[in-house]
Structures are given as C-alpha cells and as structure tokens.
Amino acid sequence: MENKIFKEFLEKKGLKFTKERAAVLKGVFSTHNHFDPDDLLINLRRKGIRVSKASIYRTLPLLLECGLVEQVEKVDKHAHYEHTFGHGHHDHLICIKCGKIIALYSEKLERLQVNLCKKEKFRCITHTLEIKGYCSKCNAKA
Fold this sequence. Notes:
The structure is a single chain. With 142 residues, the protein is α+β, with helices and mostly antiparallel strands. It contains 6 helices and 5 strands, in the order ααααββββαβα. It has 2 domains: 1-87, Winged helix-like DNA-binding domain superfamily/Winged helix DNA-binding domain (Arc Repressor Mutant, subunit A, Orthogonal Bundle); 89-142, Dna Ligase, domain 1, CATH 3.30.1490. α3 crosses α4 (53-65). The radius of gyration is 17 Å and the shape is flat.
C-alpha cells in the first residue's frame, strides 16, 4: 500500500518512482525502529541493495511530505525518522544523555490536546510531542 501512496504522490509532483526511491521506501518499511539516514544506508547495503547516500537524503523529505514517514529529532540534532503508515499516533521520550527514544501513547494526553484545540477554536492537522530528559539507565548513573 505504501508503494501505491508514494507512487501517486510522486506522480502528482511530476517525479518518477525510480529504482533508488523504491529501494529507500522498502528499506524504511523494513525497519520498525527509529533510524537515521546512515543507519538506513548501512541496512540497505547489508542486504546487497545498492543505493547512494544522496538518494536517501533526497527521498526522505519526499516520504515526509507525503506522510509515510515522520521525523524525530534526537539530542545531537541530526534527524531520525520512523515510518508511520499503518501505525497509530504516538509521542516520544528522548534521553538527552544516551539518545534512547521511547515511544509512548496516552489517551488522556490525546484528549487534553483535543480539548485545548477546541477551546482555542484551532483545527489541528497533526502534532508531535517530545519530552526530553534522562532514561532510567542514565538517571541511575547520575
């Protein structure tokens, strides 16, 4: 399904669904963890898939724009990503010492956000919540 969505998106932009873009898309959806572009490149090469680093860096923004991928910022300020198609919304706890990212979901928090938007007569399209601090392992070392 993600192939179809991405192909239609590219078509609307007047772009082609190239072999490299297909490889990046497949690589993104074969991982179920947060990843950075370098991780993706290494994983693709381990599988014998030849794709350039430039193709990855050019394809990820397209995947972001079409809504198949979301960006998760990490402590060191370089971007990490996760595929979101077929997965429910969630937020993140990010350890500022080791960089660990913990996905979380809270119905109570989601309701609070909806109520805040209603109160302000604000139509929310999407949101991202990142709470930065120390994971249990790093906190225990402090």
